[in-house]
Amino acid sequence: MSHAIGHVTWRAACGLVLLACLVPCASAAAVKKWSVLGPFVIGKNELDGEAWRSSNSSELGGAALKKFVAQSGGSVAVSWPEVDWQSLVNGVGGHEILEWQARAVGGFKTDGSNVHISCQGVTSFTLDDSQSFVGDLYWAKLPAHVVKLKAGNHRISIRLRGKLQTQFACHVEKPSSKSPLLLFGDSFAALPDVISSPDVPRGIQICGDLGLGSANQDPDRWIKDLRPVLINNKFLSLAPEQPRLHLAPGQITRASVRLEVLPDVGPCKDEVFVDVAFEGMLGEERSRSEALRLRLKCRDVTRQSFVFTFQDADGSLQHAAAVLPWDTEKSPCKGACPVLVTLSGTSITARDSADAYKMKFNDKDPEYRFGIEGAWLLAPTRHGAHNWEGPGRRTALSALAALPQLAQRLALPPVDASRVVVAGHSMGGHGAWLFAFAHDVLAVVSSASWLRKDQYADSNKVLLHDLATPKVEPLLQGLLRTAEAEFDVEAQAATVAHLPVLIRVGSQDRTVHPWFSRRMYRTLLSEGAKDVTLTELPGKEHWWWDTAKPNDGGAVNDPEIRNFLKRVLDKEKSPSSLRWRSVVFGSVGGTLRHGLRVRALARPERRAEVSVELPEKGPAVLATSNVVQLQWQRSKEWQGVQQVLLDGQLQSLPQEAVFHQVQWCLDFGTWKVCDFAVAQRHQRHPNQAGPMREIYSAPLCGVSADEEGEKALQFFGNMLVMTGHGVIRLLSSQEVEVHGGQVTAPASCENLLVVGAPENAVVAALLANSPMAFDSSMLSLGGCSWLRGENLAALSLLPWKASAKEPRLALVATGTSRSAAEALTMLSTPTIPPMARQPLTHLLPDYVVLDVEETRRHGPGGYLAAGFWSNDWQRLPSAYERCTPRGDRGTQHRSHRVAEEL
User: Fold this and answer.
1) SS in 3 state form for 778-825?
2) Where are the beta strands (DSSP E) in 12-98?
């Protein structure tokens, strides 16, 4: 069918196709017949509109309803050979135009019993146009979803996305009679190594907890008080204390198992097998999973890398690889050893990242020498398209924080986490810059790196071909981009300009063109860099194992890099200059740099700067921009400094014998030591920095008081697992209480995600001191009010103090029960494969108000308001608001400007 089909006709056509493509719900039966409407243009961002909701017209040459049949195994191949793709590339410019979206619909029939449904190759799918489920985007064996359906016909609808072509598959099968508690491993497992060496106590040690995929495949009941069961193991036993876990109906997560080495066991040779099961209470019954066999590798730490696990900032269990320092008579570790943090490119495992640091001194060496002379090598990783931004950067920082404790526990060489060099290749080269902006490092090595994702090749262009583009005015676009400002490497080049920097790239690199390295080199020089080197290696492409001769270290460990590392690691931690600058955006405001930490910005959404000069005599000179709270901490750089001239105002530093740090606050133009009254004017604690993705800055719990919200949280949690092996603890409504306007939750909850209507007690308590005000008929914010129709929703960061802990963050999704749940689900669904970021981590400021249906059609063009909160949690004047009367088809509310702004 080559002619266009109108919007109404498309829906009718789908109904006719469904009658023909129903399949019986046999075991593991693939949904075979599909009707697909497309192709439509699509943007490169996480959220874009669905063209078929508004029109059948397509810039790609018209939309057609086509029928596709699954191949053997159930996969469906979708392509559009009738589209002249080359002419589009030539005429429009750029490979971005090769990406398309389409709507696929398939059907099946059930007898009224529960069914298992799974779809591979897609981020999500919707059943009967009512509930959304997480797809297995990477074909990684994510468990199926158990759904209770009425007898009769049902349909699956999918928002397809592809580049030229794509493949997907959906299967429907009857559940077995086995336990609804399921364990799974494969790529979802985080498995530490078992290590041995002459210095390791008791012969062997295990390097952290096990992380296993777990799922509750009961659609109605919780599985509570899960406990691991270890089966017939000769090396390991369960530790007495185990992490407590409950699984909500339909929830998928990663569970932790804490093990101990049995006494008097000998060293292991190649691997240790561990058989693990889980059991918990399903109502009044005890449910037990089938056992899962895990294979732990045995590693000799004197000559091999090893993998360890650690708790990330968001509470998830992640893993990294490490290599002990190797010492020579010329370069021993003096006391604790410094660390080289190395960040890998896309799809590289932690072990492969660490093992890339190998070389031989001569051809007669029988074995490779792994690691770094005189320093620990640390290679963190995290599944998914983090780009070492957001949660990915926190993973790298968490791995570094965990390494000293691990070394101490395993009696390995001590770690000096204050003396760090960061290096990376490709995506990791981008990450090396970002890590250096967030942590006080000695030097940076960045190889084959790009500077900003939306400028690199055809990846993630912001509002280029998006359906939202004509609907997003410059102010809103600026706010969305502001949410990503801290990942713009060039904009923060001044922060590392005083450090030794080595930039490397192959002259024939066509994956990440040398242009990016040349640009960063020029930018650093323009910022006053003195110790920066750019090396373009003749004839080399993106990766190489040997630079000048066999086994010489290659792309990440050849003589140039080794000599650079030796030079910078031999130095004490001190700036190479008596002058430096720090550029700060948003959540990086907490970064400690040479004894100074920016604690609060005057305008949280704006760039801030601190410049420092340490003269030989007299006070240190500090100049700030957009900073209202600054912390000084005594360090070697400040030896002998007694006073500071802070923005022209003289401040005295405290004596070391009294205390080691001081905080200054800008109080009506005057800098002074912070007291309680002054600090109260900066109510937004550094733990409460935005934007929205900072909800992952601490362990996160989610709660809803209604069924729709619970399903949205289930979707959100399962999407966390699929996209980044992240976790959220889902709570029953009885576990969160309100007393005297204060929300209390279990002690393990540090940040909170709440879904529900404004009348819900928890939502109401969190909104009580917010400028976002709801009454029976209106949502008001600043100078705008919107009628509380069925499509109005809002997502907002709000202050919350966890029980007996420092102030933290709550994220509230509110509106009607339905619109709040739909808004969270929609904004948590990445539309850009395969680089699907974790939910709510891209192009989202502190808050958004949206029309759900309009946002489905126009992406962020459906936002009614967006912005950042001030330090006292008030609306900033930079906010975007749209509140003139609208008559757009499908909207369910009117809006108006209230009297105070007329």
Assistant:
1) EEEECCEEEECCCCEEEEEEEEEECCCCCEEEEEEEEECHHHHHHHHH
2) 29-30, 33-41, 64-69, 75-79
Rounded CA separation 19/8 (Å): 18
CB atoms within 10 A of CB 797: 27
CA distance 594 to 575: 7
CA distance 821 to 756: 8
Closest CA to 187 of 796, 745, 793, 721: 721
Q: What is the dihedral of CA 817, 821, 824, 825, to 10 degrees?
A: -170
Which amino acid is located at 139 in the chain? W
Average pLDDT on 606-629 reads 92
Residue position matching structure tokens 């790609």 = 60
With contact defined as beta carbons under 8 Å apart, do 174 and 116 qualify? yes
Is 321 in contact with 364 (CB distance < 8 Å)?
no
Q: Which of 88, 89, 69, 91 is nearest to 78 (CA)?
A: 69
pLDDT cut 90: percent of the chain above it: 74
**Residues 838, 679: Cα–Cα separation, whole Å:** 34
How far apart (Å, rounded) are the C-alpha atoms in residues 121 and 123? Answer: 7
Q: Where are the alpha helices (DSSP H) in 659-700?
A: 676-680
Q: Which tokens go with 626?
A: 């957009």
Taking a C-beta distance cutoff of 8 angstroms, is the pair 657, 680 a contact? no
* Beta pairing class for 643-646 and 620-625: parallel
Domains of the chain: 7-177 (2.60.120), 178-302 (2.60.40.10), 330-452+488-570 (3.40.50.1820), 579-601+605-683 (no CATH), 687-901 (no CATH)
Strand partners, 286: 281
Amino acid at 810: A
Angle at 452 between CA 451 and CA 457, to 5 degrees: 95
Whether the per-residue pLDDT at 5 is higher than 60: the answer is: no
- How does DSSP assign 849-887, residue by residue? EEEHHHHHHHGGGGEEEEE-B-TTS-B-TT-EE--S---
Helix, strand, coil % over all residues of the chain, rounded to 5? 20, 35, 45
Structure tokens at 453: 């994702």
Side-chain half-sphere CA neighbours of 633 within 13 A: 11
Distance CA 786, CA 854 (A): 14
Identify residue 572 by its one-letter amino acid code: E
- Mean pLDDT across the chain: 89
DSSP run (H or E) holding 712:
helix 707-724
Q: Which tens digit of pLDDT belongs to each residue from 41-67?
A: 999 888 999 999 988 899 998 889 999
Residue whose C-alpha is closest to residue 217's, from 251, 268, 260, 172: 251
Question: Quick one: 123 exposed, middle or buried, by C-beta within 10 A (0-12, 13-18, 19+)?
Answer: buried
Q: How far apart are CA 725 and CA 188, in angstroms?
A: 7
| Residue ranges in 364-502 assigned as alpha helix (H) | 391-409, 427-438, 474-482
Residue 7 pLDDT greater than 70, yes or no? no
Over residues 540-582, the pLDDT tens digits come to 999 999 999 999 999 999 999 999 999 998 775 455 458 899 9
Amino acid at 461: K
What's the token pair of residue 174? 């009857």
Q: What end-to-end distance do the CA atoms of the chain give, in Å?
A: 54
Maximum C-alpha span of the chain: 87
Is the pLDDT at 890 greater than 50? The verdict is: no
Burial of 459 (0-12, 13-18, 19+ CB in 10 A): middle
Bridge partners of 215, per DSSP, are 182, 252
**pLDDT-derived band of residue 886, with 50, 70 and 90 as boundaries?**
very low
Tokens of 364: 């007669």
Residue written as token pair 């193991």 = 233
* 296 close to 271: Cβ distance less than 8 angstroms: yes
Look at the block and give the residue holding tokens 């289930």: 714
Tell me the C-alpha distance between 43 and 889, whole Å: 23
